[in-house]
Amino acid sequence: MKRIPLGNSGISISSIIMGAWQAGKAYWVDITDEGILQAIDAACEVGVSAFDTAEAYGEGYSERILGKALAKRRDKVQLLSKVFSNHLRYDQVLKACDRSLKNLNSDYLDLYQIHWPSGSWGSERVPIAETMQALNELKEVGKIKAIGVSNFSLAQLQEACEFGQIDSIQPPYSIFWRHIEREIMPFCLENGISILAYSPMAQGFLTGRFQANHKFAEGDNRNKNKLFDHKVFPKVQTAVAALREIAASNNITLPQLALAWVTSHERSAAIAGVRNAAQIRDNAQAGEVVLSKEDLEKIDVVTMPVFEQFLDDPVPWIWNP
Q1: Which one from 27, 57, 112, 173 is the annotated catalytic residue?
Q2: What is the DSSP letter of 198?
Q3: Tens of pLDDT along 32-63?
Q4: Residue 306 maps to a domain
Q5: How is residue 175 annotated by DSSP?
Q6: How many CA atoms lie within 13 A of 187 on its CB side?
Q7: Is 192 domain-assigned?
Q8: Model-level pTM?
């Protein structure tokens, strides 16, 4: 599998990252511990070395599942976790990190990220200098190896960089959701910051499974995805049909095409959420796919009616962070 550098940290990670939001079960349905544990084992077997989680995923449950499954393989994997926006005071960051380390059964994190900017989700506004002071100290004592941010605007990312080395940003990024290409991606490339794209399959919309009459189960967060809007979804379906043909011409699946498109960008990895071993095995194959310039141009053309509607919109859900 292709690997990418994690910013300027000296760490390298697999270009396909297993996302563990589903492992926390909150905001998802039909997730089982057995399925997640089997997926983690399969991920290690097929070359996925990086696992992304957060204290907020099931109030630490996702971290505990990963800690249980990866304890004997800690030296072969990279653990990526996040501190939530309500824990960004100096002392809160230190305590949150210790909780995550305990949950993950590890004495260090390869990457520790600010999950959402200060003030998000009704949280207290904390100066980024205070949060970065804690993160820098955690790095100095070896509890974390690198610092990242998630869901930050360009201005917020630039401000964080004033107070320490930022090695990654984790934004929503997919064929359909390309807000970061305007400003954030050029800044990252210029400064050696890696892009860890979440929702690279647009929360399943780029799997082609959802039809016009699809109904998500109660409690499934995808009900809030803006791609499911009745004015947008017909364009999504048209684009998916064209993308399916491009995937077939490359002898790959539609999800593999979506992931390979993300990893075709410099310093970019795709975080793929899964609920079972079959999904991670399928996703991992995308780490070997190289799309041609012609394919990338075709993808731009057929998906423009979708992504051009959201270029000024950083959040793909009808939520209020």
Answers
A1: 57
A2: E
A3: 999 999 999 999 999 999 999 999 999 999 99
A4: no
A5: S
A6: 17
A7: yes
A8: 0.94
pLDDT given for residue 239 in this prediction: 96
DSSP 253-321: -HHHHHHHHHHTSTTEEEEEE-SSHHHHHHHHGGGG----HHHHHHHHHHHHHHHGGGTT----BS---
Helices marked H in the chain? 33-45, 61-70, 90-104, 128-140, 154-161, 184-191, 233-249, 254-263, 277-284, 293-307
- With CA atoms as reference, report the closest residue to 86 among 59, 53, 48, 51: 59
- List the one residue out of 59, 103, 115 whose CA is nearest residue 79: 103
Q: Hey, is 5 helix, strand or coil? A: strand
CATH, residue 147: 3.20.20.100
Instruction: Give the model's pLDDT for residue 315.
Output: 77
The residue type at 132: M
For the chain, give the mean pLDDT: 94
For 58, the 3-state DSSP assignment is coil
Domain presence at residue 237: no
- Cα atoms found within 13 Å of the Cα of residue 74, Cβ hemisphere only: 12
**Residue 77 contacts residue 40 (beta carbons within 8 Å):** no
Owning domain of residue 118? 3-207+254-290
Asked whether residue 308 is domain-assigned, the answer is no
Q: Cα–Cα distance between 56 and 40 in angstroms, integer?
A: 19
Overall number of domains in the chain: 1
Q: What does DSSP assign to residue 144?
A: B
- The closest of 254, 253, 256, 264 to 297, measured between CA atoms, is 264
Q: Which positions of the chain have pLDDT values less than 70?
A: 211-223, 319-321
Strand 3-5 and strand 12-14: the pairing is: antiparallel
Residues 6+ apart with CB under 8 A from 49: 3, 13, 14, 76, 77, 78
The tokens describing 115, both together, are 């999950």
Question: Nearest-CA neighbor of 54 among 31, 77, 86?
Answer: 86
| 57 given a catalytic annotation | yes
Look at the block and give the residue holding tokens 């200060």: 118
pLDDT (tens digit per residue) in 120-134:
999 999 999 999 999
Tokens of 243: 């993308």
